[in-house]
Design goal:
The protein is α+β, with helices and mostly antiparallel strands. Helix content is 41%, strand content 16%. It contains eight helices and four strands; from the N terminus they run E-H-H-E-H-H-E-H-H-E-H-H. Strands 2-3-1-4 form a four-stranded antiparallel beta sheet. The relative contact order is 0.24. The chain binds guanosine-5'-triphosphate and magnesium ion. Guanosine-5'-triphosphate binds next to helix 4 and strand 4. The site of guanosine-5'-triphosphate has 11 residues, from helix 4 and strand 4. Its cofactor is Mg(2+). It catalyses: a ribonucleoside 5'-diphosphate + ATP = a ribonucleoside 5'-triphosphate + ADP; a 2'-deoxyribonucleoside 5'-diphosphate + ATP = a 2'-deoxyribonucleoside 5'-triphosphate + ADP. One of its GO terms (biological process) is UTP biosynthetic process. It is an enzyme of class 2 (transferase). GO terms for molecular function: ATP binding; nucleoside diphosphate kinase activity.
Amino acid sequence: NERTYIMIKPDGVQRGLVAEIIARFARKGFTLRAMKMMNVTKEHAEKHYADLSSKPFFGGLVSYMCSGPVVAMVWEGKDVVKTGRKIIGATNPAASEPGTIRGDFCIEVGRNVIHGSDAVESANHEIGLWFPEGVCEYEPCAKAWIYE
Ligand code: GTP
Ligand code: MG
């Protein structure tokens, strides 16, 4: 079953959006496999966003991610990587559709409240990076009511 790494960034936590964001993934029918609140070290944030290390905003991005606790999660379900990105909305909130998390709750790209993996391969990499202890294995009871 497909899994994705979703993270509520420090602004999302500080602005009281944790429950709202979790609710959107849960109501859709996705399964929560892991969740923890944590402060992020500079080294860990740099690893997570390593692909962007040459960007001019990299330093600001890393200090943003370390500016307060994040909520790290693993969600599972059919096409959860792609659908998760749809639920989140475009990177720049100025372009995110209303109804998406970024479209509804933020204004600037440098304070866009949430992260979601952009491909199945990066999801697996990020899940390993953030949850080296592994995720919770259990049988979600509503499966037959969500999948045909
Ligand atoms: P993530 O889910 O956080 O990975 O966002 P994304 O996949 O939609 O975008 P991308 O991976 O390209 O960029 C990662 C993060 O860097 C974004 O979510 C923004 O927080 C930040 N970012 C991207 N582009 C810019 C930019 O032009 N300026 C600033 N200040 N931040 C940016
Ligand atoms: Mg990204």
